[in-house]
Each structure stands twice: as structure tokens, then as C-alpha cells.
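Sanity check

After download, print the first record. It should look like this:
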Amino acid sequence: MPPQLLPASAAAFAPRASSVNVVLGNKVEPWLTQTLKRINRIKRPLNSVPQHQRCLTETLSSPNAIWTLASLMLPKAPESELRQDSNPLIEAIFNYQLIHLEAYIVHVDMVLRNEVAYKLTPDTIEALIEYHKDIHCVNAKANTYDWSEKETQCKKLHEDFIQAINKFVFRTHVSALEGLEEDGAGELLSGKSEEVKTNVMGLIKPLLPPPPRIVDVVRQPPLLPSSPVNPSLWSQPTTTASLPAPVEAWRVLPSSPSVSASSADSNASLWASIGMSEAQLPSPTPSYSQPFSTAGFYYGTPMVTAPLPHLPLPSMLAPQCGVSVGYNSFGWDRYQEYATTI
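Expected C-alpha cells:
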């Protein structure tokens, strides 16, 4: 693709040149010859390419050679200040204005790209900048939530629009010169005005607030056996050795009927001398738990309990006896004799 060559007058903030850059080919199209003859009040010879080029350059370089590219209907005031009326015609009259996008030709190329380049006039640029600052930016700030850099962002949005609208150059095919009128003025034909509207309105960017910050949700890690977050869930009650209940002294009977009364009395007195406080277990202490460890499936050491006093059993106090020992002259070894008698 050949390079897009434009004169210095097409640059941003550049003033309008005194002469338009026109480049024609070796052969002039018949429609261009008819157009130049139609707009010239004074009949000029158009028999060669240089004559066509001179006539077209002088016509487009005239101060009155202003083209109307399109017309935009824009609000006169911010949305909060617009007039409300039941009649839509009255609302349109009081609330909207018509801005004509006027431009002048800076370049005509009928050799490489067959295009015409237009640049907006300073008055049109100033009207669009004023609309963007006083209406668009005000509406954008009112329709977005507040954040710390809102004013700075809105100011940058307006500065970017100023740069863009001053750099704006509209290019179209050279056939647009068929809409040329007297004194070099003209109007775009073949629906090109809609394309200009789309391009200009595309330069008016919305005010985009920053996206909401993603807040990291702190999630509680899953409870594992090795996690000490809630040890009560994994704690096991410590087991204590079960001890027999204390035996009352009157329930202790001699293991043999031959035991003398003195031995029984002394044995009974021995058991009676042991109070309940000595044989009673201490009150259990609150159970404690240790965290479960994956190193080994072991629980904590059980609590140390108070040992029972070493008590002699009745069989240890009575003399050794066998089955021949009787109870009140009844011997177990004479069971068969008594059974026969009975």
C-alpha cells in the first residue's frame, strides 16, 4: 500500500495553507472537466492537465471554499438542566442545538490513492471542544460514581479529545468533488455525511471508572487432624483406671467357720477403722486434651490417680483351712453321712 502522504497543513493545530495541494494524473476524467466548467462564472480554458490543475487549485484555495461535511444535533446543556415539557417539539427547540461540521480541503490526490482529505475549521473545532467540556464531561461525572482520581481522569479525557479533534482528517474518494459548488464550497454526497458523524462521535469517549478491586476472600483452611485450630474436636477423654468400690466392714465374712471370734472381731475392727475418706477416690480433675499428632497414633499419658492403701484380705488374716473345716459342727467332708441320715 502506498504511504498516506498529507501536507503540513493537515497536521494538528496547523493553520490553513494559502494553497491546496492538488495532484492530477496524465489524463483528466470527463466528470472533473464538467464540474469545473459548471462552477466557474468566467469561462476558462480547460484543454490540458495543467489548466485543470490550476483551476482546481485556485478554486479550492479560496477562503470561501468551506464544505459542510455533516450536521450534529447535540444537547445545549447537561441532563440536569434540560427543560422538561410534554410537547417533544418544544423540548427539541429549547434543549438541542445543531452543530455543522464544516471543513476545508487540504489535499487532492488523483494519482496514488484517488482521495480527497478534509480538515475541520477552527470554529467547528472550538464548538465541539466547548460541547465536550461543558456538557459531555458534566454528564459523564454525574453518571459515574466517585473515586479518588475522578477529576484527574475527566480532565485527561477532555485533553485527549482536544488532541483527537485537532488531528481529525476525513478522507473520501475524489468523486466527492462532484458536489463542488461556486467559490469552492461543497457538500458531501452519496451518504458520506453519516460516515463523518460516526467518526466524529467516536472521538467523544465515555468516562470509564476504574474496575472494582478484587478483594481476596480469606477462607479458613480445612481442619485436619494435625491442625491445632480446634483441638477439642479431636481430643479424646483420658481414661482412668477403674477401681473397685469400697467394701463395707459388715459384709466381710470369715472364709472358715473355725475362725475364732477374736479374729473376726479384730478383722471387723480393722475394716471398720478404715474410713470412707481413705478408700474414696479423689474428685476427678477436668479432663485435658492433647492435639492429635500424625507422627504416631498415641494419646497423652493418663492422669496419675491416688493409689489405694494396701489392705490385707480376710484370707490372709484367717488360718489356712481346707474343706474339712466345719461351720457349727457341720463338716463338708461328712456330707455323705449327713445326707444318708436325712
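If your output differs, re-run the checksum step. Summary of this record's structure: The radius of gyration is 57 Å.
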